[in-house]
Amino acid sequence: MATLPRPGLGVYVTAGWPNGAVFAEFLDAAAGIADFVEVGIPTENPKYDGPFIRSSHRSAPVKGIAALRGLELPENAVLMGYAEDFAGRFDELARAAAGAGAASVLLPDLLIDMPEMLDAYVASMRANGLAPAFFLPGKFPYALAERLAGYDPLFIYIGLYAATGIKLPVYVERNIRLAREHIGKTYLVAGFAIDGPDKARALVEAGADGLVVGTAAMKRLAEGGVEAAVEFLAEIKRAIR
Questions:
Q1: pLDDT band for position 18 (cuts 50, 70, 90)
Q2: Are 86 and 93 in contact (CB under 8 A)?
């Protein structure tokens, strides 16, 4: 995996959404704009996603590891799943991710709901040639942030809001600055509810190394097709560069 640029732009899309052909076309087109791609593993319980992305999971005809069969990911791609779906099966997940060409698997519920499985997750990633990646909630213990940085992860992703696509009055710039103080030079990604260039620019100015847009890009994909979604990504990239 190439080194992620600073600042970098990432985009999230659920695997196979809205259908196989459009998903493949968007993945190919997005790879020409975004610096990395997050591909969601469809699940029955996308508990930390917002309404729009939840609907994309629930409409997926194939869920779990089966959704990764035949998937060929672009460079710098990361899978995003839920630890509760793969508890006790992290090795199986990591093997499937490596087979699809992923650089890592991000599990946003791992440290919230299953922190006791942290070391097992890291071991499975490393054993299969992947880097760990971590989701850090907006309110986090400083010692946890420092511990995660010590694993030399691909990145640490700080969630700005309670769920994707939902706007809440939180001091997001402060959270980014605090995270930066405690993780040093580790690549810091900010995400959740980034819906325009002004917000993207402000987060980079606050200290984020990379951004991920999800709901806003997927809505444009649904409403205007691949071209509209890619134009939106290009607008965000111009804003942060």
A1: very high
A2: yes
